[in-house]
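Below sits the subject:
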Amino acid sequence: MKEPKPLIGISTGDPAGIGPEVTARALALEEIHALCRPLVVGDRAVMEAAIAFSDLSLATRAATEPSQGLFEPGARDVLDLHNVDMSRLRYKTVAAMTGKACFEYIKTVIELALAGKIDATVTGPIHKEAIHMAGLDYAGHTEIYADLTGTRDYIAGSTFLSSLLPISAHEGGAERMLARLRDRSEREQIRGLISESRGLDWGWHNILVTSVNTGKNKPHEGLNLRDIAERRGEDPVEALFNIIMEEENAVTMVSFNMSEEDVRTIMESPFQMVCTDGIVLGKPHPRAYGSFPRILGRYVKDGVIRLEDAIRKMTSLSAQTLGIRDRGLLKQGMHADITIFDPDKIIDKGTYKDPIQFPEGIEYVIVNGTITVENGVHTGRRAGKVLKHS
């Protein structure tokens, strides 16, 4: 019997932003329906307005439970949450109503996923300022997911430096954003929109520039924005704008904005999984080299999580969640992806200042049946491959 296609919950993002339109245009593609059963989670009226604005030949159908979805051609199933008063909705504006609605959309898809009613989630673009106006203290959708499901095993996050700019600065793509920074008038408008929910609230000293392309800014790698601004003779906001512009947006950061207590609490959740999520450029976040050893060598030893649970979160839970049926377990017929480590010695070594360091305590790594690390030394063999969903 043929297995059903995965059921994907799609939260539409900010109702006053581009999220509903992006969702509508994506759902108009038949390729999407060949791969999955999409269930929109949001406001049906907002989706219908986005469909009309995009001039698409689509209809919507209301559902109160994922199991009610028919997923038939020509109609898109919407789990209608009725969070938005359409008479008050103003597009391209920031409002507490839309921030609250956006959060409820994400919260609902997470609850459905944790209850096993959907197989995965996708989130449309959100407006961080609207989230904050709704009284919610989140820096973005990643932090919402971390709060409601799981978290990273470090108290710092990592992404592109331009994420510190208000969302309106990103409209039209990277080239349009850079053009705004070059225009003195638009640049000042962006400065006025910089909110205390990002860099100012975290503290400029808590934001490290981790990778750049130009030789001019190479000495800044690993330094925080406050110190970089002092070296350049600029205020931190001006330094932020100029570095993004000079690097043509190819600049990454590490930001200290999490709580160790929260990390430990969420790590205890049976739904939390482990990943690296590293951007391996310049001086990357140390998680790129040490995420897994850090959990095994620190949190297991501290009693936060049992060894067998930690390994499950790194292997079988991740594989099963992503639908990878031939990996994640030591079992006949499965691909031989094996790590042999000493539980008493394993630990990460990288720091935020010197992140490119291999961990200790890993004796052997076998990838697809090929030994790639032997006696703690890489053999030079590269046996990995890209796994494509089929």
About this structure: The chain is about 35% helix and 15% strand. The longest helix spans residues 96-114. The chain has three domains: 7-149, 157-256, 286-378. Residues 339 and 365 are 5 Å apart (CA to CA).
